[in-house]
Amino acid sequence: MLKTRDSTLLSSASLLASQGDVDQISALLRAVVTEPLGLVRALASVGSVAQAVQLIETALTLELPEGLAARLRCLLVELEVVGRDLPEALASAEEILGAESGIPSSVRGAVAASRMFGRYFLDVAEGRRQAEAVLRAYGGRIAGEAEVLAAATVLSDAVLSDGLVVEGLRLARAAVAAAADLPSPVWRVYLHVVLAERLVDVGAYEEAEHVIRAAGTDGGQPVGGVGLTVAHVRARRLSHQGRLAEARDEAQKALAAAVGRGVRLSVPPLLATLGQFALLSGDLEGAAGYVRGYREALGQSPGRLPSADYDWVELQVTAARYGAGAALGEMNRRYAAADRRAALFVRQPGAAAWFVRTALAAGDEKWAATAAAQAGRLAERNPGVPPLASAALHAVSLLEGDPDGLVRAATEHVDHGARTSAAEDLTALLDGRFRGPAQQDTDRPEAGATVLSDVERTVARLVGEGLTNQQVAFRLRRSPHTINYHLRNIFRKLGISSRVELARHTHGWAPGP
Fold first, then answer.
1. In 205-337, where does DSSP find H-type helix?
2. Model confidence over 275-319: pLDDT tens digits?
3. Residue 139 class from Cβ within 10 Å (0-12 exposed, 13-18 middle, 19+ buried)?
4. What distance in Å separates the CA atoms of residue 244 and residue 498, rounded to the nearest whole number?
5. Largest Cα–Cα distance of the chain, in whole Å?
6. Beta strands in 22-180 (DSSP E)
7. CA–CA distance, 45 with 16 (Å, rounded to integer)
8. What span, in angstroms and rounded, lies between the C-alpha atoms of 279 and 348?
9. pTM of the predicted protein model
10. pLDDT digit string (tens) for 369-403?
11. CB of 83 within 8 A of CB of 225?
């Protein structure tokens, strides 16, 4: 049977060798002689997942040594997770783990890790519950067991919806540190990728690239979708650093490889990322095309790599095409839940300010205040994370019309796109200030009141009576940020600069409702 098996492997290697570079082909030839399992991994990284799966299924019909057959079944589950039907992959994993004997402990651990990741990709909420249960069983300790490491990695991603960025980074670091003995090189690489994602989230771009490089060399050529995820993280890092052309090139190559190799799990997030890049370069039609592409891809697959970017790209396209009012309707529909906003604000440093800007343009100051307040809470819960601190400063300064805060945000943002956005907001604010209405005659009672909105008139009257911003906020059931924003507009419209002047202005005004 050895001769038949070698013939099968050689035939497959010959068919796929033309798709690899010299180093990859050399790896294939070495694997033919030294390690059939290594050959299958190499084939999966060079050719299509479907071909590698077909090769494994053929090999499993032969009289293989028991250890090799077990490892091939384990690899089959890994490939099914990244490139085929997730329910089928989970069913295969359950079958292997349910076997009473004949499965080496290392293989059992790798299959358990595949099951953990597969559950999360198929159903984020259920996958998170399973991961939490595994960690509880180990008393919260990140042990060197494959399923525990997978659980820690899943939770590293999942806790972002709680706004726990520092905790997510801790879990990812602990998983990588304990992963030296993880039997599957595929999932060892994926642990590095998730750590690199968290490092990008906190603005540690150089360290993220170091981890990405380690992921690319750990265990040889990354298999299937894991190698594409490495490229995706690198593209995201390059974009945050303002290297958009390089980022787009990296993502486009990864997308072509994902489609060509049949790695369906990687297609939707890559399309969403390319849609974001199109928006950053001003290509609205291109962005809309990517939205259609990833919506179609998501509809065709029962599983997905979790990402906050899907609705985000579509929301921006809606705002650009139909205006702030239409975008506000989508914000209410897609981002009413705080956890949806938290995950987005972590991944996209300019998103909180975008929400504030769009809500104000649509006339919904409450929505703007909600977004700014959540950005502030994220920064408070994650001290020492520069992107979150800058995002909160940007959002609150935009809400309050604070030019000094916008200057600081434009200086301190580590994300290139958010930094540019803060500078544009500052320019718009200063232009609006210098084009403000002329000063009104302040000698007559209620002079200037007619230029104020009903809400501004009420705020002006209460402040003129001596109430603090906190007291006015409580009285009107608004946030102090919103009251401060109104007060700045009132000062600008009336051509005054102090509460004393405002009290003089409002003296004699008729009581409000």
1. 205-217, 224-240, 244-261, 267-280, 284-300, 309-322, 324-334
2. 999 998 889 899 999 999 999 988 877 777 788 889 999 999 999
3. exposed
4. 45
5. 104
6. none
7. 10
8. 13
9. 0.75
10. 999 999 999 999 999 999 999 999 999 999 988 88
11. yes
